[in-house]
Amino acid sequence: MKLLTHNMLTSKCMKGVTVGYPLGIVAKDIKVSETEFNSEFVSRIIPKLDWNALWKAADSIGHSGDLPQQLMEDYENNEEFLKKVHHVLLEVEIINGELVCPESGRKFPISQGIPNMLLNEDEL
Amino acid sequence: MMNGLNWKRYLLWFANEHTHFRINEIESLRSLFGIQMKWVEKNHHEPFCIVDIPTEEDVLKIASRSVSLRSCIELWACGAKLGDLHNNLKLLPVEQLASYFKPELSFKIKVETFCKSQTQEEKVAKIESFSYLPLCGPVKLKNPDIKLELIEYYGLDSNNIPDEPYQVFFGRWVADGQRDLISKLSLKTRKFIGNTSMDPQLSLLMANQAKVKEGDLILDPFVGTGSLLVAAAQFGGYVLGTDIDYLMLHGKTRPTRIQQKKQREKDESVRTNMKQYGIENRYLDVLVADSSLPLWHSAMRLDAIITDPPYGIREATERIGSTKDYQIEEKHLANHIPSKIEYGLQQIFFDLLKLAVEHLKPQGRLVCWIPVVRNDYCESKLPSHPCLQLVANSEQQLTIFTSRRLLTYEKICEHETHLPPNVDLSTAEFRAKFFRYGEEVRKHRKQQKELAMNLSKATVTEKDKMYEDKSGRYRSS
């Protein structure tokens, strides 16, 4: 699972959970790979992100690198910055681990890079 | 040919399949590229249309994406007969075509006869009828600079081919469509498929209906083997998928290929499919999740949702839930597999439209199939929502009684997103009717067969008497 996806994911499917965001991450296996940088995609996605949640998530698994904690202005033209964002969003993947609901503590497993967000019948 | 606006005229020649989808595809691409266009001849049955477009660059953009388009010709002249065509061609001002007749440009004239064969002599004679054209350059049969085409249209009925064509066209070939992608992405050679994988042509059509462009964020909430995401990624989208089927996403379901042994290969997944086509960098994630439940952050916005929801025929329509009311004991939790209950089509479309209304960007599109019973179908009964406008609706027939329709919705406003979608009861009734109609067809066939058997029995002689063998078949003794 990539950190971009994590930035958009909640556990509000659960009964009694109001926001369910951001999910905590327990990472057992992380894979860092290199993928093609697309500045257009990155600069378009930045305004859609919860920047704080992104930085915290990356930091919690030790991969924030030198990504700034505050989003800078005029990032569209700053290629160096965009590349750092690209790295954190798309090149760091949690292969095995868990996502943790911040309200209930319920854990959602991640295996083979795929999170399992299915609930049991009594949690709906 | 040019009209007063200084636009150029083009002949769009289409593949002769999925005929209802062509015009919608062209309209979606036109909208995607912001192209102005005028339909001069908008045919729904003939495999060609004529359009006026401001620049050739616009036409090339459409051809760079269309999978229903075979090829595109800059139309110089046409007519009901070859003689008329020549007269019209001769009337064109010389300066208009002069740039194509320069001595340094090689050329070739091709003759296409749609729905009829031609002999070599006939072909040569037709080519020579154009000898009045001031072509100065050399003839080059392979990859010439200028490709001129004469197309003769003999109709669509191969059992009733006329002696003379209905229409003839002549002009300069400009571009081919993207039909090569169809074989490139063929399911026959794809690593990971299932019995509901969508064929490449329709998948690519859907991506075009969704106006996918470079850098778009696309979601398929019933992703299965990811065939729709492959198409979206092919056209530049970054893709996400969810599916309730854990085994499917992990590549652990029974293989559907006949030649494949009992197990799938170790790395079958949506991701490996994208790797196979060199588009792995556009794969974001797939998640095991129930599409009837909220999953995403309320501020999350998608450029498009492209999906083929389960119809409840080959794949069960399900969501997590139970008709019983109980608590699962702690010790059983770790290995518990949640039970699933029926998730009717009505509810599926309710949830799908809700997802679209809540998470599409303004002008974002939802492109999805819906199964319908043809006798009951009526456009006003399709699922709807005040924030979604139905911009396209094409039918693909499945059986005598049923078809599926490719719907394209566009999000047109934000202020009524809290309202629930309208999903008519007829949507819910599809599955029951599908099986009932199927049952009726089978009963009818059985009755007909019995009637035929009784008739032949009544007229049979002693020698030809038929007997019923062990397996219930009638044999002559």
From TrEMBL, chain A:
One GO term of the cellular component aspect?
A: nucleoplasm
Family matches, as SUPFAM superfamilies: Trm112p-like
Query: Which InterPro entries is this protein grouped with?
Result: Trm112, Trm112-like
Query: Where is this gene product found?
Result: Cytoplasm, Perinuclear region; Nucleus, Nucleoplasm
Gene Ontology terms, MF aspect: protein heterodimerization activity
Q: Which UniProt keywords apply?
A: Cytoplasm, Nucleus
Tell me the protein family, please. Belongs to the TRM112 family.
Protein name from the UniProt record: Multifunctional methyltransferase subunit TRM112-like protein
Protein's organism: Gryllus longicercus
From TrEMBL, chain B:
Record GO biological process: methylation; tRNA processing
Gene3D superfamilies in alphabetical order? Vaccinia Virus protein VP39 (3.40.50.150)
- Protein origin, superkingdom: Eukaryota
Q: InterPro entries from the xrefs?
A: DNA_methylase_N6_adenine_CS, RlmKL-like_Mtase, SAM-dependent_MTases_sf, TRMT11, TRMT11_N
Pfam families attached here? Tmrp11_N, UPF0020
- Enzyme class at the top of the EC tree: transferase
Name of this chain's protein: tRNA (guanine(10)-N(2))-methyltransferase TRMT11
